[in-house]
Amino acid sequence: MKPGSPTAPSAPLRSRDSAPRPEGPAPAVELSGVVRKFGTVTAVDGLDLTMDPGTVLALLGPNGAGKTTTVEMCEGFAGPDAGTVRVLGLDPVRDAARLKPRIGVMLQGGGAYPGARAGEMLHLVASYSAHPLDPRWLVSVLGLENSLRTPYRRLSGGQQQRLALACAIVGRPELVFLDEPTAGLDAQARNVVWELVDALRRDGVSILLTTHLMDEAEQLADRVVIVDHGRAVASGSPTELTTGAGRRRITFTAPPRLDVAAIGACLPGDARVAEPAPGRYTVSGEATPRVVAALTGWCVDNDVLLAGLSTAKRSLEDVFLELTGRELRA
Ligand SMILES: Nc1ncnc2c1ncn2[C@@H]1O[C@H](COP(=O)(O)OP(=O)(O)OP(=O)(O)O)[C@@H](O)[C@H]1O
């Protein structure tokens, strides 16, 4: 949360339950070999994942990657077909009664009573908690003052999203699940949500969020797990994933179907060129002036005009493309 921000949370967010437990801190979330099938569709396919307490972990992946299914198993809505799921050291299905007071859940689509007014809903959810946050403070931070008397079904999509977030955190959970928390929000509302997530993290709350927005994952997460077809294809901090231990890579755009083997043969060292998507190329190995000169030299010799060339830090989108050969938004 930026200093001086008019929406800066000032109320204590820390869970009353967040003091170290005698048995030592269990991982906030631990999945081991988790499989979940729907008929012939394998939504989650052998997923391993460990999330440290007090951190923000983003599950990043395209539509249908298995993010929501994974989160729903953590929330105890369904058990896995194989493997184990542990949340705060507990089995979310078997130990649901012990776990529910310690977690907050923001569902895609809200999971609300359609006729209830926004203010009634928030106060109802707050009443389930022994030590809730002040609902008036949350309403103010999330800009919901003018929506309190509006029935849930009449709220705009963005207002429903913000109310769902307020309901997820009003009980001071130790761990919050946020499924696509900024889907459908405008830039201003998205920033408010990002700032609130940041404030929760600073107060020691663990947050598992799903997103298909690279900038959201980069901005919020301590650790990103890139998911595709129900599997983790890469994980690490945003910096680790985008810089690959500090190295910069060359990417370039040019007409599709260039002879990548021929280009690679002109480059110094063992650099290889790949075309993971039509017209988008990557060069393996570290970007150096000699590699750039050799690449542009090949273009001169072959009358190829580059549309773009970058030696900047890779984005998570680039990382996903390199790993899967597909665009993250596809
Ligand atoms: N209840 C269900 N019945 C049948 N198939 C399902 C069910 N829930 C999920 N699936 C399928 O499982 C796969 C993973 O879906 P899931 O919703 O977990 O992906 P996701 O990564 O959250 O996608 P999105 O970003 O679109 O929400 C998809 O192929 C989806 O169609």
Q: What are the SSEs and their pairings?
A:
Elements: E1 29-38, E2 41-51, E3 56-60, H1 67-74, E4 82-87, H2 96-99, E5 103-106, H3 118-127, H4 135-141, H5 157-169, E6 175-179, H6 187-202, E7 206-211, H7 214-220, E8 223-228, E9 231-236, H8 238-243, E10 250-253, H9 260-266, E11 273-277, E12 280-283, H10 289-301, E13 308-310, H11 316-324
Parallel strand pairs: 3-7, 3-8, 5-6, 6-7
Antiparallel strand pairs: 1-2, 1-4, 8-9, 10-12, 10-13, 11-12
Bound molecules: adenosine-5'-triphosphate.
Detailed description of the structure:
Residues 1-28 are annotated as: Disordered. The protein has two domains: 29-235, Rossmann fold (3-Layer(aba) Sandwich); 249-312. The chain contains eleven helices and 13 strands. Helix 6 (187-202) links the parallel strand 6 and strand 7. Helices cover 30% and strands 23% of the residues. The model is unreliable at 1-12 and 14-21 (pLDDT under 50). The chain is α/β, with parallel strands linked by helices and 330 residues long. The chain has helices at 67-74, 96-99, 118-127, 135-141, 157-169, 187-202, 214-220, 238-243, 260-266, 289-301, 316-324, and strands at residues 29-38, 41-51, 56-60, 82-87, 103-106, 175-179, 206-211, 223-228, 231-236, 250-253, 273-277, 280-283, 308-310. A six-stranded mixed β-sheet has the order 5-6-7-3-8-9, with helices on both faces. It has a four-stranded antiparallel β-sheet with strand order 11-12-10-13. It has a three-stranded antiparallel β-sheet with strand order 2-1-4, covered by helices on one side. Bound molecules: adenosine-5'-triphosphate (ATP). Residues 38, 41, 43, 61, 63-69, 212 line the site of adenosine-5'-triphosphate.
